[in-house]
Amino acid sequence: SNALSCDLGVDRLLSCVTNTGDAFLIDGKKLKSINQYFNKIICNLQQKNMDNGISKRIVTNKIAALWHKRERQINGYIAQALGLLFKKVKEFDIDTVVVGYNTGWKHKSHMGKKNNQKFVQIPFQKLIAAIENKCVKEGIRFFKQEESYTSKASFLDKDPVPVWSK
Asked: Which secondary structure element, helix H or strand E, spans residue 77, and what is its range?
């Protein structure tokens, strides 16, 4: 029985390791770049709108089109990342995938304005759902593991993984 554990992040969208010691990373900088680009363009448009007396909260057709384009690009990158992940799943003959996740982690993040923006705008839940759906289609077991304090557990010492909050 081969298992794969995936940890989610910003610069490294997925950091993955198998129980046989194989490891690989899937880059997250492209998602960060997409978000930064669209945030900059939308901010400039909102500033122009405010200069013309339009509230910053008003979503113009142009801004809505940019949000949709951003969404399409993010979905495309998630599909690419999923393809890379499952190429490795097949290569390593994985039958169980575990993804670390914390409920409400985006609401409790206090990393400063810039880091919060980078973290909060990455659709981790969408990525997890895509991984789960692909696992179901491929007949692979899937688990979401609450991970807030998994760093307190040592695989080498065979420590149990604590669950701190639901």
From this structure: helix 61-91
8 Å CB contact between 6 and 144: no
Contacts with 41 (C-beta within 8 Å, 6 or more apart), sequence order: 66
Convert the pLDDT of each residue in 44-92 to its tens digit: 998 998 888 888 788 889 999 999 999 999 999 999 999 999 999 999 9
Domains by residue range for the chain, with CATH: 3-152 (3.30.420)
Alpha-carbon distance values, 81 to 14, 128, 166 (Å): 9, 11, 28
Structure confidence by residue, pLDDT tens digits, 135-149: 999 999 999 988 755
Q: Residue 106: how many CA atoms within 13 Å on its side-chain side?
A: 12
Token code pair at residue 144: 């979401």
Model pTM?
0.79
Closest to 70 in 3D by CA, of 108, 40, 102, 109 = 40
